[in-house]
Design goal:
56 residues, mainly alpha, elongated
Length: 56
């Protein structure tokens, strides 16, 4: 398996996830937005850990 495709795919998926999150975030109420931000922070940490394990 080509490792470069896997790395670039993870990066593109992360960028796409951020874009979708921004669109949904702009249409939410304040309480839902706080819960979403907490979930997004956890997802970001998980994504970064996964990317570090692929690149490291």
């Amino acid at each position: 398996m080509n490792n470069n495709k896997l790395k670039s795919g993870a990066l593109i998926a992360g960028i796409a996830g951020v874009a979708v999150g921004m669109v949904y975030g702009s249409k939410m109420g304040m309480l839902k937005k706080r819960k979403f931000i907490r979930t997004a922070k956890r997802a970001k940490a998980t994504l970064l850990n996964g990317m570090n394990s692929l690149w490291g």
